């Protein structure tokens, strides 16, 4: 009698558990169907009655998350692309309008030859700037394309930096900028693409020469297996907001889009640094802007 | 539903009032039983006497509506009402994607379990432990155990309706003070009806409520007719209260 | 997936004899960050409460994820998260315990989500500290963590910046942007300060005394709020040259339709028009456009007041 009672209780317990588990599997199935029909991005939920089913749910949710983020990344990429094209046409229109305007004025009947020459030379300067902009834009799009691969060689960053800085000697002198350079005594090795590193330093230097209000300090240091190249310059008119956005495409602190540069230089630097698995950050302190490029040191 | 019950249990197990009630009632109940067993305090004329269970006389204290009322409504005040008033966490639960009826049922079940533990289980367990400890274990003969099982079975059934009423009051008033006060008033009114009113109609009505059945449950001799009536009253009240609760919760506007 | 996350149709809510909301038609698309702006008592919280299903409309309908059946509400709620008014917390529990209750309640498999969400809102190191000892800012973060725990597709945040310091507000904004970008999270966020949401929202709804005054995209808002001179001349290219050569400014844009937007010389309309005319241009249109955000908002709200 007692045994029968116990046995029947055990049976009832096991049956109800089987039923509950089966119901749970059905519920998960239904949610996955809903998800697979692309009706939702929702992760699944369940009655937390069994550890193993719970683990199954956890793994399913990881899968869902993976798909959602991947999909999102694709959408974002497409959006950015559209945005870039829109930005480009917008950014080309204003300089183009002004070039056309100068040519139109030069073509007028009532201008003297002297005036005409002046107008045409302004137009040609503008056109050259537009050319640079297009070139940089092209370069950026190449860097950003997924099939653009950088080499990974052991290079001596110290030598590369010194070489690039030498080429800027004349321009620095010309602008009368006081430049301090701190280089370590020993060689500094990183694994990277030499031409990309060169382009980064060149762009940083052109940027600093165009925008600095005075002193420039360039230093290279190696610490805890990290290599840092720091370019620091006086920047009295820069704000925190400018620094936050300075690596964005076409961002210019004066908003006038009339300066000598295209606004793409730093974007190129940033993309290149990302491609090299390096890091780039900008800081503003005591009216001094420092741009820090960081690589992993090679043994 | 399982999830909601687990969540409610998680909250109950971390509820300070619940633990205070458990410890203080364990102490209080142990003390009362001790006094009775050692004959330092004598109660007579209880139903336990009739059942030759005088050692369990202290249990009768815990079966008086006015007494357990205070315990149950305190728990409701600090476990249910606070969710509505002070912290507002009820909002989160109501928008968690669970049916309101299920939320109500989970709350009801776990709250009843908590109330059951503090007002029924603890006095019983402490009584058993003390009786065995003082070598009076033979009072717990099969016949006596059968009586206790029947009495507490019926009592618990009525008790489940009572916790339902307290829960309803807690949800309606959303205030722990009122949650403690209103059920108490109800019990006092019922007590007054029992003792003072002699109008036959009201008397008859009263005898068909769970309040009357609380004391009926412990009657030593109970005909099967009376037992069925008691079960009937308990089940009907329970169904009505649960339906009322679900109906109310479904229409409630959450602040 | 339906394109609209939320669509309300003539949504009204009446308390006693007064309308808290009257005929509100709002649409929120997948991926929007919708800023719901209104003064205190304008009906923001009532609206959010109706959407999440805490109260019920007097008339009108709410369609969530393309579904307007009230019986399906619980299924829809599972895809959402919300903070309504103050963050609702179990004060005698730690941050982790608070989230555990909600994890159980929502049936989210695996405890990993608790730590992940705490890290996301920056409350990972609160340890055994109980919620009652949290600062207001920390409470807001924990409220946000609760809303985000189930990885919802749509979250509703009612004045989430209340009690946050400026740094906290920036962090919150960044977090919302990040989730919106990376997961496509749709957000409905309310505030009584327009400028607070200016950098964040992609669409705005402005509500006053229970009525939706205006619904506009952030682009439209920017358009209205960046001060500029809108110039239309017979020859835009010449116009651009004149501005460059004679007024020495390059702070302008030439729009597709030939309109020039000049961002400098805003207080110097006379000089601009004179210069243009002197150089043989015919001015077809010249106007000063744009308000500051707050003056735009108070104009809108004030306009109703004077009715």
UniProtKB/TrEMBL annotation, chain A:
Catalytic activity, EC: 2.7.13.3
GO molecular function: kinase activity
Pfam family, one: HisKA
Keyword annotations of the record: ATP-binding, Cell membrane, Kinase, Membrane, Nucleotide-binding, Phosphoprotein, Transferase, Transmembrane, Transmembrane helix, Two-component regulatory system
PROSITE patterns assigned to the protein according to its UniProt record, in alphabetical order: HIS_KIN (PS50109)
InterPro entries linked: HATPase_C_sf (IPR036890), HATPase_dom (IPR003594), His_kinase_dom (IPR005467), HisK_dim/P_dom (IPR003661), HisK_dim/P_sf (IPR036097), HssS/ArlS-like (IPR050398), Sig_transdc_His_kin/Pase_MprB (IPR008358)
Gene3D superfamilies tied to this protein: 1.10.287.130, Histidine kinase-like ATPase, C-terminal domain (3.30.565.10)
Domain Histidine kinase: 87-281
Catalysed reactions, as listed in the record: ATP + protein L-histidine = ADP + protein N-phospho-L-histidine
Localization (cell): Cell membrane
Enzyme class: transferase
Record's protein name: histidine kinase
TrEMBL record, chain B:
Superkingdom assignment: Bacteria
Residue stretches spanning the membrane: 18-38, 58-80, 101-134, 154-173, 180-202, 227-249
Keywords: Membrane, Transmembrane, Transmembrane helix
Keyword NADP part of the UniProt annotation: no
Protein name: ABC transporter permease
Species classification: Bacteria, Bacillati, Bacillota, Bacilli, Bacillales
TrEMBL record, chain C:
Top-rank taxon: Bacteria
Short name of one Pfam family: ABC_tran
UniProt lineage: Bacteria, Bacillati, Bacillota, Bacilli, Bacillales
Xref: SUPFAM superfamilies: P-loop containing nucleoside triphosphate hydrolases
InterPro entries for this protein: AAA+_ATPase, ABC_transporter-like_ATP-bd, ABC_transporter-like_CS, P-loop_NTPase
Keywords: ATP-binding, Nucleotide-binding, Transport
Name of the protein: ABC transporter ATP-binding protein
GO MF, one annotated term: ATP binding
Organism: Cytobacillus citreus
Similarity comment: Belongs to the ABC transporter superfamily.
PROSITE patterns on file: ABC_TRANSPORTER_1, ABC_TRANSPORTER_2
Domain ABC transporter: 6-234
């Amino acid at each position: 009698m007692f045994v029968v009672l116990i046995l029947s209780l055990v049976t009832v317990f096991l049956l109800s558990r089987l039923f509950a588990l089966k119901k749970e599997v059905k519920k998960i199935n239904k949610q996955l169907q809903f998800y697979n029909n692309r009706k939702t991005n929702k992760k699944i939920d369940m009655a937390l009655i069994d550890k193993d089913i719970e683990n199954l749910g956890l793994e399913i949710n990881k899968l869902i998350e993976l798909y959602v983020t991947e999909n999102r990344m694709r959408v974002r990429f497409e959006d950015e692309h559209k945005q870039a094209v829109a930005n480009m046409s917008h950014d080309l229109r204003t300089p183009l309008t002004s070039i056309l305007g100068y040519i139109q004025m030069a073509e007028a009947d009532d201008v003297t030859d002297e005036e005409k020459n002046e107008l045409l030379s302004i137009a040609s300067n503008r056109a050259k700037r537009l050319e640079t902009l297009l070139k940089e834009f092209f370069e950026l799009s190449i860097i950003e394309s997924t099939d653009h691969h950088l080499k990974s060689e052991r290079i001596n960053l110290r030598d590369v930096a010194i070489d690039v800085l030498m080429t800027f000697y004349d321009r620095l002198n010309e602008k009368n900028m006081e430049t301090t350079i701190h280089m370590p005594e020993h060689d500094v090795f990183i694994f990277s693409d030499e031409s990309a590193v060169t382009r980064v330093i060149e762009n940083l230097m052109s940027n600093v020469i165009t925008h600095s209000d005075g002193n420039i300090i360039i230093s290279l240091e190696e610490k805890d297996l990290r290599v840092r190249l720091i370019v620091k310059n006086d920047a009295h008119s820069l704000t925190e907001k400018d620094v936050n956005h300075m690596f964005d495409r076409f961002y210019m602190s004066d908003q006038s889009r009339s300066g000598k540069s295209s606004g793409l230089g730093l974007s190129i630097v940033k993309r290149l640094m990302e491609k090299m698995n390096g890091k780039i950050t900008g800081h503003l302190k005591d009216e001094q802007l420092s741009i820090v490029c960081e690589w992993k040191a090679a043994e | 539903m399982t999830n909601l019950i687990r969540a409610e249990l998680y909250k109950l197990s971390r509820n300070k009032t619940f633990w205070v009630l458990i410890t203080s009632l364990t102490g209080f109940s142990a003390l009362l039983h001790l006094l009775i067993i050692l004959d330092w305090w004598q109660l007579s004329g209880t139903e336990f006497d009739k059942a030759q269970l005088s050692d369990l006389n202290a249990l009768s204290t815990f079966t008086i509506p006015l007494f357990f009322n205070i315990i149950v409504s305190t728990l409701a005040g600090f476990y249910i009402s606070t969710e509505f008033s002070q912290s507002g966490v009820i909002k989160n639960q109501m928008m968690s994607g669970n049916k309101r009826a299920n939320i109500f049922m989970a709350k009801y079940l776990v709250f009843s379990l908590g109330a059951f533990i503090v007002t029924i289980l603890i006095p019983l367990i402490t009584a058993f432990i003390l009786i065995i400890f003082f070598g009076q274990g033979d009072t717990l003969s099969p016949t006596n155990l059968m009586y206790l099982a029947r009495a507490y079975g019926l009592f618990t059934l009525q008790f489940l309706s009572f916790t339902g009423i307290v829960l309803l009051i807690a949800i309606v008033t959303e205030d722990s003070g009122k949650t403690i006060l209103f059920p108490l008033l109800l019990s006092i009114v019922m007590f007054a009806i029992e003792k003072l009113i002699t109008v036959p109609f009201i008397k008859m009505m009263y005898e068909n409520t769970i309040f009357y059945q609380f004391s009926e449950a412990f009657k030593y001799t109970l005909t099967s007719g009376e037992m069925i009536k008691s079960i009937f009253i308990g089940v009907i009240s329970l169904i009505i209260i649960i339906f009322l609760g679900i109906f109310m919760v479904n229409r409630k506007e959450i602040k | 997936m339906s394109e609209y996350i939320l669509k309300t149709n003539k949504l009204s809510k009446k308390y006693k004899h007064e309308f808290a909301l009257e005929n509100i038609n709002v649409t929120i698309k997948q991926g929007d960050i919708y800023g719901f702006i209104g003064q205190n008592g304008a009906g923001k919280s009532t609206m959010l409460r109706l959407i999440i299903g805490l109260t019920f409309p007097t008339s009108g309908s709410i369609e969530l994820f393309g579904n307007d059946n009230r019986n399906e509400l619980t299924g829809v709620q599972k895809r959402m998260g919300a903070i309504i008014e103050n963050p609702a917390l179990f004060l005698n529990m730690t941050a982790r315990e608070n989230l555990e209750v909600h994890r159980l309640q929502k049936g989210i498999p695996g405890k990993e989500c608790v730590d992940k969400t705490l890290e996301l809102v920056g409350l990972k190191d609160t340890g055994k500290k109980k919620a009652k000892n949290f600062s207001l800012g920390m409470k807001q973060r924990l409220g946000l963590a609760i809303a985000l725990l189930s990885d919802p597709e749509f979250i509703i945040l009612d004045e989430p910046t209340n009690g946050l310091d400026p740094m906290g507000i920036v962090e919150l904004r960044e977090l919302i942007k990040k989730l919106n970008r990376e997961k496509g999270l749709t957000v409905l966020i309310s505030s009584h300060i327009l400028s607070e949401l200016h950098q964040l929202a992609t669409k705005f709804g402005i509500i006053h005394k229970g009525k939706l005054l205006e619904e506009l995209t952030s682009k439209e808002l920017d358009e209205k709020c960046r001060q500029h001179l809108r110039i239309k001349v017979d020859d835009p290219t010449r116009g651009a040259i004149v501005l460059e050569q004679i007024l020495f400014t390059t702070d302008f844009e030439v729009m597709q339709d030939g309109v020039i937007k000049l961002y400098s010389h805003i207080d110097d309309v006379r000089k601009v028009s004179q210069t243009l005319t002197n150089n043989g241009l015919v001015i077809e249109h010249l106007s000063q456009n744009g308000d500051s955000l707050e003056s735009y908002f108070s104009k809108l709200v004030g306009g109703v007041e004077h009715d």
